[in-house]
Amino acid sequence: MGAGEQDPGLVRVSDAERAEVAERLRVAQDEGRLTLIEYDERLKRAYAATVRNELEQVVEDLPVRPKAAAVAPADGAEPAETGKRSHLDEWRSWAGTAVVLSTIWLVTGLAGDDGFSFFWPVIPLGIWAAVIVANLFWRDRD
């Protein structure tokens, strides 16, 4: 290295670089590559890093994701896989709530003197399902 050259590992990091490493850590934790404790420790180290060497040490044993896959399209379009996943997550939440509400209805019907009354969970579940289906057709296109 010449007199005017600077070691790239000693260059100070920006907030954007820290956020990028934090995203890599989140993905690694989601994929099961890191435990929650490891994720937390590494995330603290990433945000405390001041130079690139410190930041690179945090993710040196994790696979590198291609930039195109890590960054959402600039035109604001949602990737098809992400949209499908969020739609399925919404239905999972709906199904979980359906189980809870139906269980409440069942328990109150068994415990009550009047027996089973109108299946009231159909009202909130029906409205929620209509909103999910409507969202499928009329997504926000900003």
Spell out the key features of this protein.
2 domains, 142 residues, elongated, mainly alpha, 63% helix
Give me a quick take on this structure.
The chain is an all-alpha fold. Helix content is 63%, strand content 0%. The radius of gyration is 24 Å and the shape is elongated.
Strand composition percent: under 5%
Fraction of residues in helix = 55-70%
Counting DSSP H or I runs of 4 or more residues, the number of helices is 6
Number of domains: 2
Order of helices and strands: HHHHHH
How would you sum up this structure, described in words?
There is one protein chain. The protein is mainly alpha-helical and 142 residues long. It has two domains: 8-70, no CATH class; 80-137, no CATH class. 63% of the residues lie in helices and 0% in strands. It is built from six helices and no strands. The protein has helices at 15-30, 36-48, 52-59, 67-70, 80-111, 122-137. α5 packs antiparallel against α6 (122-137). The longest helix is centred in the last third of the chain and has 32 residues, at 80-111. The model is unreliable at 68-74 (pLDDT under 50).
Spell out the blueprint of helices and strands:
Layout: H1 15-30, H2 36-48, H3 52-59, H4 67-70, H5 80-111, H6 122-137
Helix pairs in contact: 1-2, 2-3, 5-6
